[in-house]
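Please predict the structure of the following assembly.
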Amino acid sequence: MNYAIALVPGDGIGPEVIAPATDALDAVGDKYGHIFNYAELEAGGKAVDTVGEPLPAGTLEAAKECDALLLGAVGGPKWDTLPGHLRPERALLGLRAGLGVFANLRPAYLLPQLQKACPLKDEILIAGNPEKKPTFNFLIVRELTGGLYFGDRGRSGDHKSAFDTETYSWEEIERTLRTGYDAAMVRRKKLCLVDKANVLESSRLWREVAGTVSKEYPEVETSYMYVDNCAMQIIRCPGQFDVIVTSNLFGDILSDEASVLTGSIGMLPSASLGARGKAERTMGMYEPIHGSAPDIAGKDIANPLGTILSAALMLRYSFGLEKEAAAVETAVTSVLDAGLRTKDIAGFSEAETIVGTKAMGEAVLKALEK
Ligand code: IPM
Ligand code: MG
């Protein structure tokens, strides 16, 4: 089968982490008989430099023609002082909205090989875990194309006051919740809606919609938690969570918090999904959850595993290629088992070899070719 993948390597370490991910995809293609065709597109800081805007119309149009998009990272200090509409981050928001990928899946799990990299004490991990093991595995489903990041915003005439608005429609909430419930059904069947319903009207609507949608998923245990408490519970007792569903703003913040517990933000993939489209393919945008890390760009030390694992999520969610996705994930696990570590995940076990971005990518490739 042929698949068209839009590639946005982006800025900073973006191109360095994208290269090993496409290598891994190609190896999977060779092994299982698929062809991945890439359309390399410009967005972010690079696009600001070459065409004067972060998301050129041609990039969005070309991405829409593809089956899925794989993105490295965008942004950097060079563009930080530009006005809002020219900042590289606008490209992310524009791609998400333009591709209609409304549900952002951000897994947070502790791999046994990285257990010592988790800043929490073992006792805390064990106490919160229903199986009394020093680990956790939860999934944050973040609404991605609505809420505060897309609401009306502006300044008063004298520019001395400013506003941003949180607006959610029933439909936006419902489709995000459904993504969460569908995920919970193939996990531990627990869903926690995180909001601020003691203050915000929009949060109260989220709860109302959850009350309705939850009836369709009687097997899933639904619970509710305020976001401030959730920020605390993630550190106090991460093992209690299975699927967390939340708004754009809260999901942005909580997913960064959760990533720290996994040992390194460099390890984590993400998938942003839209509605199911032609030929059972779901448009999706896949990216590591880390940023462009300009301080380490070009040094061959960035961790490519978050991006490689994002490619695995693409195989699973957009193309329905489960065994291919699992093969990539197994290859990643096996290089970690062999003791290979990039700098960000090094120093936590005895028998480890520190490698650079390229060597880590090559090791995954070798494991895949076995
Ligand atoms: C993320 C990032 C982006 C977001 C920024 C760069 C716009 O923080 O993907 O979490 O807030 O969505
Ligand atoms: Mg963020």
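The chain has twelve helices and 14 strands. The two ends are 22 Å apart (CA to CA).
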